[in-house]
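Tutorial handout. Part one gives the primary structure; part two gives the three-dimensional structure as C-alpha cells.
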Amino acid sequence: MGKMPDGKARTALSEDALVHDPKLPPTSVDEAVREAEERKWTPTKIAIWAAISLLGGVSWFMLAIVRGETVNAIWFVFASVCTYLIGYRFYSKVIERYITRPNDRRATPAEYKADGKDYVRTDRNVLFGHHFAAIAGAGPLVGPVIAAQMGYLPGTIWIIIGVVLAGAVQDYLVLFFSMRRGGRSLGQMAREELGVIGGTAALIATLLIMVIIVAILALVVVNALGESPWGVFSVGMTIPIALFMGVYLRFIRPGKVMEVSLIGFVLLMAAIIGGGAVAGTEWGAAFFHLDKVTIAWGLIVYGFIAAILPVWLLLAPRDYLSTFMKIGVIVMLALAIIVVRPEITVPAFSEFASRENGPVFPGALFPFLFVTIACGALSGFHALISSGTTPKLIEKERQARLIGYGGMLMESFVAIMALVAAISIDRGLYFAMNSPAALTGGTVETAATWVNSLGLSGVNITPDLLSETARNVGEQSIVSRTGGAPTLAVGLAHIMQQFIGGTAMMAFWYHFAIMFEALFILTAVDAGTRVARFMLQDSIGNFIPKFKEHSWRPGAWLCTAVMVGAWGAVLLMGVTDPLGGINTLFPLFGIANQLLAAIALSVCLAIAARRASFKYLWIVALPLAFAAVVTITASFQKIFSPVPAVGYFANNAAFSKALADGKTEFGTAKTVAAMEAVVRNTMIQGWLSVIFVVLSIIVIITAMVATVKAFRDAKQGVAHVDHEDPAVPSRAYAPAGFIPTAAERELVDEWNKLPADLRLEKAAHH
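Part two.
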C-alpha cells in the first residue's frame, strides 16, 4: 500500500486538483472572507447572543431549579429556542470546521449525477421543508406525550440537550457522508466502511427495524381514528386532496408550489369543517364509524397503493401539505403558549419516575424514558432519509448543516410543543386517556374510579369531567384513547381555544390537531414503505440483479407487497393486543429506532476516523456510547427482566402458565383467545428484541475495530481506502443558510449577471 500523511491530506490533494472554469464566477465564497465574517463580533451581535444566553439560562433555572407548585409553559418555549440557537450557531460550526470540512468548490451528486428524477438540484428552502416533512413522523408527537408519565423535566432535558449533542449530530453527519458518496444508503455505507460482517448485520437490522417503525406509525393513526367518524372522514379526504394537488402541479399549473399549497390548505380546512357536519348526520355517523381492525386493513391497502404510485402523484403533494401544516401549527402553538401562558401542574418528577409499573408504559426512568422519546431527541429513522432522498437533492455542501442539523432542531421543537400540550391538561384526564381499556374499564365511571385509586398528588377526576371533555372535542368517548395522538389533540385544543374561539371551538381544534397528526404520520408511512421497498430490492438485487432496477414493476410490486405484509402483520398484532398495542409495542419501537441510530453513528464513527478527525471523534463517540448503553440496557431488560410488565418472556411465561392451569381469564386478558394472543405477541416481540440487539452489537464492535485500525494506519502513514466519489468541480453556486451573508449576496449577484448559456438551470423546486 502507498504512503499518505493522513486522511486530511488525502482529501486536500483531491480537492486541490479541482480546476475552476475561468468563464464562471467563483463557486464558493473565499475562505479568508468567510472566516473574517464569522470572526467579526460587533457590539450588536454580542448583545444579541448575550440576551439569548441570558434568556435561555433564566428559562432553564425556572424549569429545573425553582419548580414551585406550578411552572409556566412559556419557559419551555424560551429554554428550547435559546438552546437550539446556541447549539446551531456554535456546536454545529465545530462539527463543520473539524469533521465534515465542506468544500463548495466540489459539485454535489445533484449536480454531477443530475437526471431530473432522483438527482435534482433543489432550492435549499424547499429542500429543508421536504427533508423535515420526511423525518417528522409520529415519534416527536407520540413519544413525549407517553413519556409525560414520568413528569415534565426528564423528557424536557432529553429532548433539548439530546438533540443538540446526539440527534442533530447524527442527521448532519449521515447526510454529509452520504452526499460525499453519491447519495449512497446507510446499508451500502455500512457495507463499505465496516466490511461484510458489519455491513450485512446493519442491512438485516435496518430492514427489520423499518418494519417495526412503519407498523407503530400506522398504529398511532389507527388509535387516533378508531370509532371517530369525524376523524375518519377528514383524514380520508386528505388522499383525494393530495391526488388532486399532484395532478394540478404536474399538468395544470406546473411549478406553482405556493399556489397549490394554498389550495390544499383551503381544502383541508373544508375537510375538517365538513367532517363535523358529516359526522353529525345519521348516515355519516354510521358509515364512517369504523372499528380499529377495519381501519388497520384500510391502512395496509393504502400503504401498498401509496408506495407503488409515482412520487409526484401522492407522496410529493402530501409533503407540501404536511410541511406547511407541521411548521405552521407548531409555530402557532408556540405563539399561543406565549400569549395564554398556561400554568403546568404536573410535577417535574412524577410518582412513576422511580417505579417500573407505570400504566402508560412499564419500566424505570432509565433507560425507558430515553427509548420512549425517540424521534424528538435521536432517531435512527432519520438516518434512512438522510442517506436516501435528501443527499441526492442538495445543491451545495455547506447547506448540509442547515438541512441536516437545523432540520432536526425543528423536529425537536415539535417534540417540546407536544410535551407542553400533553402536560397542560388535567393529570387525571391524561392517565384516563393513555392507559389501556383493560385498566380503565373503558367507561367514564370505571376510568374515574381507577385513576383516583392511583394515589396521584392533586388528582381527583370525575366522570362528568371525562364526559364533558369528550363532548367539547366532538367525540363519543376519550377514555383509553392510547397512542399519544388523541392526548396531544386535546392538549392543543385546550391551549388554542384560550387563544382563539373559546370552548365552542374545541371540537374544531381537536379534529384540526388529529388531521395535523395524521398528515405527519401518513407521510412517514408512505415514505417508510417506499424506502423499505428500495432496501429490500437492493438486498435481493445482490443475488438477482434485475431487482436493483427500481423501475422494474414486477420487482417493485413484489417487494412492496412483502414489506407491507410484514408491517401490516405487526400492526394487526398491535391493534388486537389485549395489553394495549401501543403500550407494549412502543418500547420495542423506541429501542429499535435507537438501535438504528447506534448503527448510523457507528458508521459515522468509522468514516470520521478514516478522515483523521481523531481529536474531535468524541463528538460522534459521545452520542454513540449513550445510545448504545441506553438501548442495550433497555433490550436486556425487555428480554431478561423477571417482572411481567417489563420483560416480554416473563410476560409470556405468566400467561402460558395461566393457560396451562386452565384459567379462562388472566390479568388484562378477559378471554382464552386474548390470553393466547398475549402469548403469541410477547414471544414475537421478545425474539425481535434479541435479534435487534445482537445485530446492533455486531455493528458497534465492527465500527470500533474499523476506528482503531484507522488510528493505527494514520500513525504508520498507511493510506486508507477512500469510498468518497471522486471530486468534480462545481459549476453552480447557492448560499448556505436561509439568509445569505453579505459575501454570499455579492456572489449571487455575480452569478445572476452571467449569460444564460454559461449558467446551469436554477435549482428546481422538485
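Part three, for discussion. The two ends are 44 Å apart (CA to CA). DSSP finds 29 helices and two strands in the chain.
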